[in-house]
Sequence to fold (104 residues):
Amino acid sequence: MIQLLVARLFDQWYTATMNLLGTWLTERMDQQLHVYQLKILIRISKKKYRDFRLQGVLDSTLNSKMYDTVRNRLTVEEATASVREGGMQGISMKDSDEEDEEDD
Fold:
């Protein structure tokens, strides 16, 4: 019983925070993110995904539409920043893909 409650809590927590991040990005759709904002948001999304996966949150919850929206936006912003700034220097969404595959 407690395990189900904890699992549900983690599911709701992940979903709520990913929705918050996605909403924030959607409200700023017409604005480019500053490189610092982009680096921080990439770190937050990568860490959140990995940590909640380790806590047993189901892949169907982790890979929600909102997660895809956040990930796609950060990937586009990263590409734009790489061209504009000459690179992200040490952090990228691609690193996230490679690290996630290594964890499996």
Confidence is low (pLDDT under 50) at residues 100-104.
